[in-house]
Amino acid sequence: MVPEHQAIGDIKTGAWRREYLLTATGYAMAFESAGAGAFDLGVIYLVDTDPTFLTQGHVVVFLLTDQLRREFLDRRDQALIAATPGAAEPVPVTKSHDKERYCPSCSYLEMCSAREGGPQA
């Protein structure tokens, strides 16, 4: 690492998920808001696991870009709306590639599908 850069990291197991980038981005933003300085690098240590023993690990180093920060804030805001009683319904994901990425594991899939007139999970 270059000394003038601060990095923040996380350890994950299993298969790679893009959301891991957002998790580390959120950690960095939380530390920054607490006065820990500016973070510009994220590090994910991904450990592949086997039911009987630890197999191998991979390190992913990435820039904490403004785009990742905006995406984290958008996802956080949607989650807060969904979790707040009496708040507006979750904002539906409108881009087809986003639907393929996020909707299969979303707990609001049935609600959004019903509202859009599409098939339910």
Overview of this protein structure:
With 121 residues, this protein is α+β, with helices and mostly antiparallel strands. The protein folds into 2 domains: 7-88, no CATH class; 89-121, no CATH class. It has helices spanning 19-33, 66-83, 96-102, 109-116; strands at 7-13, 41-49, 54-63. It has a 3-stranded mixed β-sheet with strand order 1-2-3. Strand 1 (7-13), helix 1 (19-33) and strand 2 form a beta-alpha-beta unit. Helix 1 (19-33) packs across helix 2. The radius of gyration is 17 Å and the shape is flat. It starts with 6 loop residues before the first strand and ends in a 5-residue tail after the last helix.
C-alpha Rg (nearest Å): 17 Å
Give the helix/strand class.
alpha+beta
Strand order of the largest sheet: 1-2-3
Number-wise, the strands total 3
Number of domains: 2
Report helical residue fraction: 25-40%
Order of helices and strands: EHEEHHH
Shape: flat
**Percent range for β-strand residues:** 15-25%
Q: Spans with pLDDT under 50 lasting ≥5 residues? A: none
Number of helices: 4
Largest sheet data: 3 strands, mixed
Mean pLDDT: 79
Distance between the termini: 45 Å
Could you give the topology of this structure?
Layout: E1 7-13, H1 19-33, E2 41-49, E3 54-63, H2 66-83, H3 96-102, H4 109-116
Parallel strand pairs: 1-2
Antiparallel strand pairs: 2-3
